[in-house]
């Protein structure tokens, strides 16, 4: 199912208003955090998951520290 949303001004920023039905499907409420991830098909919107966020922080740190090693392994 596709939802049509409108980009609007929110204070000095720009935001998107999500319909109630979509919020219910995502199981989120006002004040919750969502992830926007780029995919080959566009973007994906998912609820914030603390354990996933921590895992990504660790992965990003490892990739940053071992960038040269990972680059050599990829060759």
Describe the fold and architecture:
This protein is α+β, with helices and mostly antiparallel strands and 75 residues long. It has one domain (7-74). Helix content is 41%, strand content 27%. It is built from 3 helices and 4 strands, in the order E-E-H-E-E-H-H. It has helices spanning 20-26, 50-65, 67-74; strands at residues 7-10, 13-16, 34-39, 42-47. A two-stranded antiparallel sheet has the order 1-2. It has a two-stranded antiparallel sheet with strand order 3-4. A hairpin with a 2-residue loop joins strand 1 and strand 2. The chain is elongated, with a radius of gyration of 17 Å. The model has no long low-confidence stretch (mean pLDDT 90).
What summary fits the major beta sheet? 2 strands, antiparallel
Shape: elongated
How much of the sequence lies in strands comes to 25-35%
Counting DSSP H or I runs of 4 or more residues, the number of helices is 3
Question: Layout of SSEs?
Answer:
Blueprint (H helix, E strand, L loop, with lengths): L6 E4 L2 E4 L3 H7 L7 E6 L2 E6 L2 H16 L1 H8 L1
Antiparallel strand pairs: 1-2, 3-4
């Amino acid at each position: 199912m596709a939802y049509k949303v409108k980009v609007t001004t929110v204070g000095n920023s720009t935001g998107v208003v999500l319909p109630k039905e979509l919020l219910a499907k995502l199981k989120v409420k006002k004040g919750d955090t969502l992830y926007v991830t780029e995919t080959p098909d566009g973007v994906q919107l998912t609820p914030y998951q603390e354990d996933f966020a921590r895992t990504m922080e660790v992965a990003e740190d490892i990739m940053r520290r071992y960038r040269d090693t990972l680059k050599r392994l990829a060759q």
